Amino acid sequence: MLGLMIALFFLCICGYAIFKKYKAQTVLLTGGFAMMSVAILLGMGDILPVKNSTGSPWFDMFQFVAVLASKRAAEIGMLIMVVTGFARYMDKIGASRVLVHICIKPLQALRSPYIVMALGFIIGQCLHLFIASASGLGVLLMVTMYPILISLGISRNGATAVIGTTSAIDLGPSSGNTVLAAKTAGLQTVDYFVTYQLPVAVVVILAIAVTHYFVQRWFDKKHEGGLAAGVPREEEKTDHKSDTEPLRPLWYVFLPIFPMILILAFGFFKFRGIHLDIIPCMFVSLFISMVCEALTTRNVKKVFASIQTFFDGMGSQFATVITLIVAGETLAQGLTALGAIDTLINVTQSTGSGKTVMVLVMSGIIAVSCIVMGSGNAPFFAFSAFAPQVAKKLGFDAVNLLLPMQLTSSLARGISPITAVIVAVCGISGASPFEVVKRTAIPMAVGLLTTQIMTYILFG
To answer: Which domain holds residue 68?
Structure first.
């Protein structure tokens, strides 16, 4: 119990530091080293097994980070970097914008404001499968979907709230959290997505869409006098460079979707006996996109130069996400060295319903952390490393713990007024982030509750 109390003390300090905008990677690394140091001083546990030890527990801390960084960069790191690099390239050549433009088009034919809004949320969440950046998707939807919602009379806060939560669930192989969850669970990413994520996510998305319908209508009626009639429309216009940029050929809509087609065809269904992992699928898609861009622009030199965007995207992910994963696992090692996880497992087992309680506890910790930090990555990266160990000791599959943790990390992000996507969309619409999260809180809470219920029903 002493180890758990010490761990909670350090976790509070780390959470406060990240909330105060200290660099997350440095905070997590420092917290992990601090807890490992206390564990060494108090003789609570070894940092590394004897066969892997340097001979000194103090040097073992740094050996742990060195081995972990090398392993993560070579495995999950390359996967996340390639996926993100491709997403950046799609944005660079304008393919992502074409995809959003085509998908939003049917909404203009409908005239029922709140049905359009609910359907817009569902379309936006589907687009998030192909546009990995929550902020990037939010900005594109502010240019395309937002004017439609405003023209129908939806209030500025309501439209901003819906668009700000279109990335509420990180789904599919393009999501770093999905990739990490799958690898930690010992599953192929596409298997994790199709078999575990998708059945739960479909129900959660529908639940959130319905909740948005009633919540935004209630807020507009209470605070806007019903539909926002009389609101000066000139004040509601967005001003973004994408408005004036020419749209690329409409057939570009297939380029962001192509990797998913390849992944499902050859990674999941093994079409004609061919098996391709995500990285080869991404490189095939990149090559085809380059050819299409060359045929469109007729400027091979420009196309070759544009590939730097792909490499820059890979580098930025290494500098942020991969280092964050390593830092999070270092923090996890500190908690393990203090015996905090074993204590938590023993406490939950004593309640007689260890698995259910542990899922709720871990999901709750991540939800609170995401709201406070404004990030879904940092908390999930920090705590996901525990899942295999916890699941093994409680006698169930790691994926049953990782799935609700991973979905919670993105859902809770939508309630934080300091998360990047909320700040970005509010910056365009001129709405207050704090007013917007009042409107997102109930739909996201429904999403969190539905996630736990569906996970228990389907995989409990």
So the answer is: 2-459
**What residues have CB less than 8 Å from 265, skipping those under 6 apart?**
271
Number of domains in the chain: 1
Residue 257 CA from chain centroid, whole number: 19
Residue type, 109: A
* 11-55: pLDDT as tens digits: 888 878 877 878 888 888 999 899 999 988 988 877 888 788 888
In this prediction, residue 404 has a pLDDT band, given cuts at 50, 70 and 90, of: very high
Judge contact between 180 and 79, C-beta under 8 A: no
Residues 6 or more apart in contact with residue 433 via CB below 8 angstroms: 417, 418, 422, 423, 426
Q: Where are the beta strands (DSSP E) in 331-370?
A: none
Stretch 94-118: mean pLDDT: 85
Distance from C-alpha of 288 to C-alpha of 56, rounded to nearest angstrom: 52
Give the type of residue at 151: S
Tell me the CA end-to-end span of the chain in Å, nearest whole number. Answer: 29
The C-alpha atoms of residue 341 and residue 320 are separated, in whole angstroms, by 27
CA distance 208 to 446: 7
Residue type, 213: Y
pLDDT > 60? residue 235: no
Residues in the chain: 460
